[in-house]
Design brief:
48% of the residues lie in helices and 13% in strands. The chain has 442 residues and is of the alpha/beta class. The strands form two sheets. Strands 1, 2, 3, 4, 5, 6, 7, 8 and 11 form a nine-stranded mixed beta sheet that branches. Strands 9-10 form a two-stranded antiparallel ribbon.
């Protein structure tokens, strides 16, 4: 295993080499590569242009829809369109996203007719998604998708679609919901376990204060949060007998608290433990939902390219970092997991200048010469899809720099946002939109 300094040097070398690989190519070679990509690309203008993608993904157990930023309007629009078609035409059962469990449970209850926000989805989203970065889910595209899912479920009551969050964050919202469930459960044993969460009280329920305290003292709340989860697992038949639906959420909230504790306990440690613990939580949540929906069920996953694009085709492998794209392919087989990446060459994005700061529309600089974004910009289509399964373009089997923008972004240091990527191994298909707009928040 490489130490952090050595792995960073190796990544920097790979990135420098990858940039030079394309930028130093002769003009004739570059033009030939662009022409071959264009010959294989499908111009993307209307939902009908997705036909090949929908048919390719139809028989997969899971379809993963990525994004190279968390704040691009077009990525949300096309993921919404793809999801609707997979549900309507191919029988997919649920959508699970890189968001918190508890607020999405409120959305899930709404689309299943179990809460009264009809005609005021904006109010529901604004109330549910107050944790930063709120723009990721409190926006018009999610509001429209939420209404569409509600209408679909009304028309198809025998097979209602679900809408869930799979991330490890939002633990204090999960704690509030779990305490409400415990109070209403009537289980004396479970009510006694509610006090386990008082372990976090000395840190005023501040996750980073807790993380720092663990780092300096070695004390943790690990056993307390595990005890509650174990109780849910051992008493499944008793707790789920009256309401399987509410049991699913309560157990998941307990698991969120357990895995959030692990994430914050390990996040200050060197290495990949913190990152990987979050990935494993998301992966387990997906599997739990597949089990809940039963044999033959199929799910759609929305998350950043960093999560859905197979980690083994990026620098992440050097740092022993995993992601759900890798894990799900390993579990279900590559043929049963269809991964779609998204990218852009230029435009604007909604992001914060630092963690917790106000989201603002920022300029995305043109893709750097030698990057995948720069290469795809040379194709004449302003938006297109390229399918990598069976693609005979050897250059796409090499490491090429590929931009990844998170919720925190500084356009002036954009070069730091590129990671070496083998596109043909990381994704099954890739949607490229040359110029994009920032996502608007409600």
């Amino acid at each position: 295993m490489l130490d952090k300094k050595t792995s960073n040097l190796l990544i920097a070398f790979l990135l420098s080499f990858s940039f030079s690989l394309l930028s130093c190519s002769s003009q004739i070679t570059a033009e030939s590569l662009t022409k071959r990509i264009e010959n294989k690309a499908i111009s993307l203008n209307t939902p009908d242009d997705l036909d090949t993608l929908i048919n390719n993904a139809a028989d997969s157990r899971l379809v993963l829809l990525g994004e190279s930023t968390h704040g691009t309007k077009e990525f949300y629009e096309w993921r919404s369109i793809i999801s609707k078609r997979l549900i309507e035409e191919k029988g997919f059962d649920f959508i699970v996203v890189e968001g918190d469990w508890k607020p999405f449970w409120e959305v899930n209850s709404y689309i299943k007719g179990l809460s009264d926000y009809k005609g005021n989805t904006n109010k529901l989203l604004k109330k549910s998604f107050q944790r930063w970065p709120e723009w990721m889910w409190s926006n018009k595209i999610i509001a429209d998708l939420t209404e569409w899912l509600r209408d679909y479920n009304i028309s198809n009551p025998e097979k209602p679609i679900g809408f869930y969050g799979m991330d490890v964050y939002g633990q204090w919202d999960s704690l509030e919901a779990l305490k409400n469930y415990i109070r209403a459960s009537g289980s004396d044993s479970l009510i006694k376990l509610k006090s386990n969460y008082d372990c976090f009280a000395p840190y005023k329920y501040d996750e980073w204060a807790y993380s720092s305290a663990v780092w300096h003292s070695g004390f943790s709340c690990e056993s307390e949060v595990k005890e509650v989860v174990n109780f849910f697992k051992k008493n499944k038949h008793i707790l789920s007998e009256d309401n399987k639906y509410e049991y699913l959420s309560a157990k998941q909230n307990a698991i969120v608290l357990k895995n959030a504790e692990l994430f914050y306990r390990t996040s200050l440690e060197p290495g990949s433990k913190g990152w990987n613990s979050r990935v494993l939580h998301m992966n387990d949540t997906i599997n739990r939902l597949l089990d809940y929906y039963g044999e033959g069920s199929k799910g759609i996953i929305w998350a950043h390219n960093t999560h859905v694009g197979d980690a083994r085709a990026t620098y992440m492998k050097i740092n022993n970092e995993i992601n759900i794209g890798q894990l799900l392919r390993e579990q279900y087989g590559k043929e049963n997991v269809y991964i779609v990446g998204f990218g852009t060459h230029r435009g604007r994005v909604r992001a914060g200048s630092q963690w917790g700061s106000r989201g603002q529309s920022m300029k995305i600089p043109h893709g750097r010469e030698g990057s995948g974004e720069y290469l795809f910009n040379q194709v004449s289509y302003p938006s297109f899809i390229i399918h990598f399964r069976g693609l005979d373009i050897p250059e796409m089997n090499n490491f090429i720099p590929h931009r990844a923008i998170g919720v925190v972004y500084n356009p002036e240091s954009d070069i730091k946002n590129y990671i070496p990527t083998v596109f043909s191994l990381r994704y099954d298909s890739f949607i490229f939109i040359d110029q994009t707009k920032a996502l608007d928040s409600l």
